Amino acid sequence: MMTHTRYSEAFKRQVVEEISRGKHLSPQKAKQAYGIGGAVTVEKWIRKYGREDLLPKRIRIETMKEIDELKEARKRIRELEAAVADAHIDFCLEKAYLEIACERLGEERDGFKKKNAMTLSDVRAGKVVK
């Protein structure tokens, strides 16, 4: 059977205060000192009482090359997204044109496609259906 430990507001505030005064070097050390369960319990208390300044900071240091590579990658992603969007619009237009052509010819679209289908090998061989 699991037991859930509840901590009083006074205890929570005391732990946060002790961290701010330097008694515990980190939320993890305070957690260990008092046997507090939960991976982020003390961090939640720190946020609850508005003392985010006590939380460990994560600083990422990058070389100029890494920054440039990231910028280039993001630019390339934008270009590819635009190309996919353009291709999708082209596909939708082609589909609509085919529908209109089939309607004017009095043919079903699927039947028209099967009768007039070309394979990639036909295109590579220079065969043109007329």
Count of domain modules? 2
Structural class computed from helices and strand pairing:
mainly alpha
Helix coverage percent of residues? 55-70%
Q: How is the main sheet built?
A: none
Number of helices in the DSSP assignment? 6
Outline: elongated
Q: Percent of residues in beta strands?
A: under 5%
Distance between the termini: 79 Å
- Point out poorly predicted stretches: none
**Any idea what the radius of gyration is?**
33 Å
**β-strand number:** 0
Order of helices and strands: HHHHHH
Q: Provide the residue-averaged pLDDT.
A: 88
Features:
single chain, 130 residues, mainly alpha, 2 domains, 6 helices, 64% helix, elongated
